[in-house]
Structure formats: C-alpha cells, structure tokens
C-alpha cells in the first residue's frame, strides 16, 4: 500500500472459514508477509507471519491516526526483535521459516494450520532445530494451563497458514508456562494432521487420523468380528465434523487393524452433554498388544485442548470396557437412582483438572 500515512489493513484468506487478521505490514517477501497485528481497533497485539499463497485480499480499514489514538509509539513498529533488542533476520522470500531464529523472539509460538474443516491452532515451544527440515516443524505443545508436553510434535510445513508471535494471548500463556513447568507434562500422543502417524511401541503398527479411504477397512474390521459395519455416510460425516476425532491403527501395508472415535454429544442426546469416548474396536488377531490404550492416549491428548471433562457410557455387564476405561483414568459416576435393569449403562468421567489425570 502506498500513501503518506500508514494504514491498517484487514488480511482476508482464500478459505473464508478463516477469520481475517488486522494490522500493518512491517515487511513482505514473495512467500511471507510480516504483519504487526492489532486488536480492538488498533491496539497492538504482537506479530503474525502469514503465508502469502493463502491471502485472498488486503483491505484498508482506516488511517492509523484515526484508529489508534490510545497506542503509544510510531507505526508501523520496528521489525521483530529478540529479548536483547536485536533484530531477527527472516528470509520472507523462502518457504522455510527458521524456527531457531524465531524462537529468540518469544518462548511460545502459535501455529495456525490447515485442517479438513477450516483452520487449526496449536501453541508450542520450538525444539529439535537440528532435525527441523523442509518437511516438518518440530515443537512441544503447550496446553491452555501452561503445561508443556514432553513429546515432540511435528507439523507439515506445507500445512502452516500463519505463525502468531508475541500476542497478548501468547504472552499470558508463556507466564503460565513459567509457573507450571518445573517439570514437563507427561508424554502424550498428539495428532494434528492426517499426515502425522504415531508408532505403537514394540509393534509394527501406526496410529493416525482416519480419512475417507479408510472407510472400507473400518467396515471390513466390523464384519470380521461378526458385527454390523457403520455406514460410509456416517463414517464420512464424523470424519469431517470439527467436534469429532476418528483415528485408525494400520499395519505396514496401511490396512486398518483398529479404529476409535470421540465426539461431542449435545444435551438433547445425552446427559450430561459433553465430549465422550464413543467407541473403539480392535481386530481379534491384534488384541492385547496395547492398541486400545494408545488410541485412548491419542484421543485424550486431542480432547485436553477442548474440554476439562470427558465422559464414557458403557453397558454395566461390559466388564472389559469398564476395566479398560478405568486403566486410562476414568472413574464411575454414582447413579442418582437404582438401575432398573442389569444391562443399564454405567457413566464414567475423566477430569483433566485433577492432577492425577494429567
């Protein structure tokens, strides 16, 4: 944009499910735009690196002096600087963002990435710079309460839409992190893209997000066990529902040997309303090797970023399911009224705010 006075722009994305970002351009290259972000009209809110190919248009929303009388300092602000005030050198003409360089600016970064339904967001501490290659970004996830996962998560570089740096939200999260992390949080499995596969220890199997190509394999798994298979329409619907997660365990030839899901159930369907672990099925030939437990860990890691409490409901006679849920941290909720039938369901819950569940 040209003109004698700086303007604040609204950056709109090609995917209209992603919210626009407002701010002033500090620098730009052929691959990336460095934006000094604003909120509440023109109150400064850190920086955002935006991948140019995702931008649909940049719309001026007003002159800086008309919008930002309460903001102290010049506009646009200086380029990114580290804790010592030194400028951070970024190559905005290269698709490969240097996380080692960016980590000097702030302890926690916000990774905005593509998902099947709009935009995903995960916060993390960059790590493993020696293995930080052209294919993946490596970081440890920081939960909303400031705890840092001990396991390293990888995100495909090609999936990254924008990188949030030094926003008020991340500054508060970093403060929580400093208070909460005398030790890293327990290692968990975190799956944030369909390309991410997690190996199951001491087995030849991988756990990953399910996709439409897995539908025949899930149906065949049910048929081998003598159960009616879920319909393709049902499976495809839950796979794209942003309030659901469907995962599969696959062998080295990508054949489905187990699958599991979790989803939000409203009050019109269940009491209480909330997120539930809603099923797991493992091929009879691959039981008792830890697949169900690992798939529970993957789903609970996903749920930790969305809720404080997870529920499960199983028929009272299903003792294997009750033992399985108890082993991953669930406790049974006492019934307010006596059971009217031996086959009535048992309701269980897992409270993430309980230290024993973290």
UniProtKB/TrEMBL annotation:
Residues 205-353 form the N-acetyltransferase domain. Keywords: Ribonucleoprotein, Ribosomal protein. One of its GO terms (cellular component) is ribosome. This is Ribosomal protein S18 acetylase RimI-like enzyme. SUPFAM superfamilies: Acyl-CoA N-acyltransferases (Nat). One of its GO terms (molecular function) is acyltransferase activity, transferring groups other than amino-acyl groups. InterPro entries: Acyl_CoA_acyltransferase, GNAT_dom. The keyword Ribosomal protein applies. Transmembrane segments: none annotated.
């Amino acid at each position: 944009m040209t003109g004698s006075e700086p303007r604040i722009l609204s950056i709109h994305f090609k995917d209209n499910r992603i919210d626009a970002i407002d701010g002033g351009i500090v620098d730009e290259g052929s691959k990336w735009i460095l934006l000094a972000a604003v909120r509440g009209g023109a109150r400064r809110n850190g920086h955002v690196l935006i991948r140019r190919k995702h931008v649909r248009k940049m719309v001026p929303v007003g002159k800086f002096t008309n919008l930002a009388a309460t903001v102290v300092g010049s506009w646009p602000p200086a380029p990114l600087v580290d804790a010592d005030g030194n400028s951070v050198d970024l190559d905005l003409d290269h698709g490969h963002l240097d996380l080692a360089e960016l980590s000097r600016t702030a302890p926690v970064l916000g990774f905005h990435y593509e998902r099947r339904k709009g935009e995903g967001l995960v916060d993390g501490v960059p790590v493993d710079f020696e293995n930080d290659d052209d294919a993946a970004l490596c970081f440890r996830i920081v939960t909303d309460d400031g705890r840092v996962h001990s396991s390293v998560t990888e995100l495909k570089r090609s999936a990254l839409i924008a990188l949030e740096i030094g926003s008020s939200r991340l500054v508060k999260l970093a403060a929580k992190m400093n208070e909460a992390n005398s030790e890293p949080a327990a290692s968990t499995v975190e799956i944030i893209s369909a390309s991410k596969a997690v190996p199951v220890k001491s087995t030849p199997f991988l756990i990953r997000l399910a996709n439409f190509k897995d539908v025949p394999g899930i149906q065949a798994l049910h048929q081998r066990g003598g159960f009616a298979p879920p319909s393709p329409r049902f499976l495809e619907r839950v796979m794209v529902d942003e309030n659901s997660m469907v995962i599969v365990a696959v062998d080295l030839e990508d054949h489905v040997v187990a699958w599991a899901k979790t989803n939000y159930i409203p009050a019109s369907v269940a009491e209480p309303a909330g997120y539930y672990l809603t099923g797991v099925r493992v091929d009879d030939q691959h039981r008792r090797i830890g697949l169900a437990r690992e798939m529970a860990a993957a789903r609970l890691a996903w749920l930790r970023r969305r809720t404080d409490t997870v529920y499960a409901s199983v028929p009272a006679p299903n003792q294997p399911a009750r033992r399985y849920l108890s082993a991953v941290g669930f406790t049974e909720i006492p019934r307010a009224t006596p059971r009217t039938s031996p086959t009535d369901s048992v309701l269980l819950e897992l409270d993430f705010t309980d230290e024993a569940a973290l």
